[in-house]
Fold each of these.
Amino acid sequence: MYPVIDSFAVHTLNGLWYGFILFMIASGLTIIFGVLGILNLAHGELYALGAFVVFSVVGYATGFVASPDDPVSAVIFGVVVLIAALVAAAILLPVGAFIEAVFVRPIYERDEVYQLLLTYALLLIFIDVMKFGWGTSPLDAGTYGGLNQIPTTEVVGVSYPSYNIIAMIVGVAVFAWLVWFFDQSKTGRIIRATAINRDMATAIGVSTDRTFTLVFAMGAFFAGFGGAMVSIGPQTAFLEMGLDPLVLSFVVIVVGGLGSLKGAFVGALLVGVISRWAIWLYPAVELAAPFAVMLLILLVKPEGLFGTWGEIE
Amino acid sequence: MSRLSPLEQREGETVVRVPLTRGLTLTIGQTVLALVGVLVLLGLPFLAGLVGLSWGRLFRGLLFGLAAVGLNLLLRHTELVSFGHAAFFGGGAYAVAVLAAHLEVSEGLLLLLAAVIVGTLLAAFIGYFVAGYVDIYFALLTLAFNAVIFATVFRSGFFNYNDGLAVRVGGDNPTLFGLGWTDLGYDLVLYYTTIVLMLVMLLLMWRLIHSPFGRALDAIGQDRTRARFIGIPVERYVWYSFTISGLYGAFAGGVYALQRLHVQPEPTLYVFVSGEILFMAILGGFTTLVGPLIGGVLLVYLLEATRFTFNYYHAPIGIILLAIVFFMPNGIMGSLPDILAGLRRRLSDPGRLGEDLRSIQSMVRRSLTRATTTVRILVFGVK
């Protein structure tokens, strides 16, 4: 028998899982804010859209593989589901690019209150687009059971749902890729240069228009990927699912520092773990706890834990 | 006699002095508009039914609009975007509900007074912490305070969780002016009391923004450092204006509770209600005094009415907001003079219409070319 881990560890692990999902949403929000200077209120709806799209894609993709009953077919099943999640998120790339090019681009120079108004309008429109596409009833991708057939218990030595472990590994991979992308790759450096000084970047031949489109599409991609990772788990995709993660990602990026990737990572894990501990210890404060943390950080250290204005680190 | 006559000649125009407000003058046209506005407000309970509108909904719209007028003090003058005004609206509403449900206070005006006091104290408390912050930090801080309050109410048995509290003592409507009323009488008395107070509050707001204090707020909005240099106590003034704007929200929330007779957290305290109050101000025109009121009526009516008639009720509002952002950035009231002037010019010179068409054509053509170029570059690269 493998040791059954105690409730403290379970709640911490659940918190980490939640934190990784939050990180995927908040990372998109924070790079969009860091580079474009826009606080995207429609970000939660991009996350919801990813959850809905993966429902359709997964249903199609898993038709090709055997239902998971032994470890080998379960692993194949898991790989197919992950690829489906990536495909679902990839569908959000053109969506994000379209939104940036058509709606967001004309308002960079305007007051921030118009930027908020515009993205709020997009949020409303997205809700109806999803209602039109998938109806009003919650959808369950139905892959949770299959994913849990993947034998992780033998590997990590404790019994804990395989899906959560996979989601956490994916979260780490996303963080690692983002750090590599902004640190090492040429495109990433161009984006950072644009964030630091738009005029200078233009002067050395960077097309800021295309950079911005790319950044917004990337943000949409990761929000959608986060939604996809949630939707293939035990949770359903429903119309209002975008609101809470949106507000919580504000908390995350404020705690971590606006525009900071590392900050979003630490902030997301912090918020995730704290909210799950609150559910476990004192459920009444579950909703308030993350905001209390945010208040404390804002009042004590307004620039956040890793705050650097307009620079991605 | 000229001292008593409300008419006065100023800069070649006949203007009307509004009684009781030193310095508030309107042109003849504005006076007519204002009088029509007041008459419409007074006749609303009877007029609304005639044109097929719901009076109760319009009433709620006015209340949210009044909260938006309060918020506009911050938005227009100190240029601070508050994302937490539902805290005061909901604070006022819950003050009424708690007093009625737990302490069995049954006099409506007393409840309203309590709402104003509680909401204003709440605003003073939050304002004390946020007055030093600007831009996005101010918005996020107010949002955080609002979210904490919502979460506390939502999860607390004292406020009866998600179901909220009824504003009834022993199953009866609250009394107004110490008297019990029938349902219709209650609504009418509440409405007219509110309208009178609302008009007074609008005049006071006008007085405030044209006072030295209001000018100081303008200065703070334009440049905090300079405002500090010329001796304006910036943080303290922002704190005052935050508290005053909270008072407006609290009053509106209190009346809302008395009108609905039931207070739930989601329609009054939720963070997205804060967003709606903000957007009402912009929709109606945040550069004007009464714009937010109009925006409130319009947005609340759209939000409530479309919910029951269309399956897709979010997108139309989204599209209206998009149109506001791109075509009418000053909101409805703010853009009205421009639109009227444009219309008048086109009426006197129909040839301009052809010019308009041509400019629209060239605009569409230009944006199409730009879009195809962007797509080509994105797909095939620069070469």
Amino acid sequence: MTVIEVENLAKRYGETVAVRDVSFTVEAGEIFGILGPNGAGKTTTVECIAGLRTADSGRITVLGRPAGDPELRARIGVQLQESELQDKITVREALELYSAFYPNPADWRELAGDLGLTAKLRTRFGKLSGGQKQRLSIALALLGNPEVAILDELTTGLDPQARRDTWDLISGIRDRGVTLLLVTHFMEEAERLCDRIVVIDKGAVAALDTPGGLINRAGDEQRIRFRPSAPFADELLTALPEVRELSHQGPRIEIIGSGNLLHAVISVLARDGIVAAELTLEQATLDDAFVHLTRGE
Amino acid sequence: MSVFTKLTLSEFKLTLRDPLYVFFTLLFPLLLITILGNVPTMQETPPELGGLRVIDVYAGAALGLAIGIIGLQGMPAVLATYRERGILRRFATTPVRPTLLLAAQLTMNLATVLVSAVLVYTVAHLAFDVPIPESPLTLLLAILLNCSGAFAIGLLLAALAPTGKTANAIGTFLFFPMMFLAGLWAPRELMPEVLQRIGDFTPFAAGQDLMNGALTGQSPEWLSITVLIGYLVICGAAAVKFFRWE
């Protein structure tokens, strides 16, 4: 079932074109990522989906209704960037108050527990750390038991541990059947969480694929470095179809190639009784794919 | 409890955590009345005041001060901050409309004024024999009209000021001349004719006239009513037109 459908979305602010032409669909139960450099149009796109902005042209459907339909507000949870609360409201008061906004709210105590906020319930918003504010913001987005949650830059400002905890939480939310739309600029986050990713660049779709698929587009070049236990003739390895380049770097050898490179190289060496010490393997990452896809031409 | 009630109570709770707001809207008017009430000249009855003593007039002025502080300084700064910090935007993502938060702010501030009015007139009556108004209903109407003019200006300030700080700065800039013309430093009846006539067209002076009139049981001045409703309509409409939610 398609939960979000964006077709030829365009939006400009005065003379500035924020989104030129963006189309994608998000399926039920998916974690769908929106990646892109700063100013690519990611936030505008999700704001149009959330009904906070009206598209200039194009069509957006969410849960079978046009974006902006008032009925959707109870069914979508939104966590925006730079959206704060009153300094003097406590975590508990905020959770209780916002619960009252929804027809069918989640148990805020449980949510606070899941997000590690239980010890902070009596703390005022102004006294929370950046990470705690962010977690409260995520909790507020999930309070209404939404069918779709839109999270914009959800782990920005979190320390690495808190970021990993949030990722676990996100996986947990998906397990409850919530469809998630994540805007992020952390590759590791997108690679780890997302089922599919749309890369937006200069207001248009640069690529739409699974994380693995995107990485493959960057080429599956691999790089192996090691120190051989005994010298050997280069031809031994350059003869392999997987190997493209071999170079000597002092006592080390660097090999660039593709396919099942590591296995091929190690097998040949093992046959000749050579041990590859200090072995490292580098593969293309989503980072490489991202740079490859959004490189300015 | 309805969402609106919960929201209003929440705004109340948050506001009461601001010691400055509590001091200036609830304690300061009382303090002013108590201090002035002990000044002997305040018991005099200058002929210009139509039978009222100076202290009688100052009961209204003290309340006008609370209304002015809320309308020009408190509320615009709070609302502009709500926009600046994305609180209104967050509301826009929920089933509750951001307008409801504005309504809760207005209700909360109006309730504060009414509490302050009860405190001011009670203390003024018990301690300094300020008369109980001939028609409490007219006094209530006078207070409501004064608030509607002041709050409409406040909403317009909140609509136009880009940040909470600017809203506060503009509000403070307007506060002193308006309070002067309303007679906070000297009863406006004792001012030169020119200043009185200018004052007629400012919201706090018009509100002051209505409150004093209610005290003596005169029928309310149509000019004052028209001026205040004018501020409500014009500033209110401009605020609706220019208000930005983000």
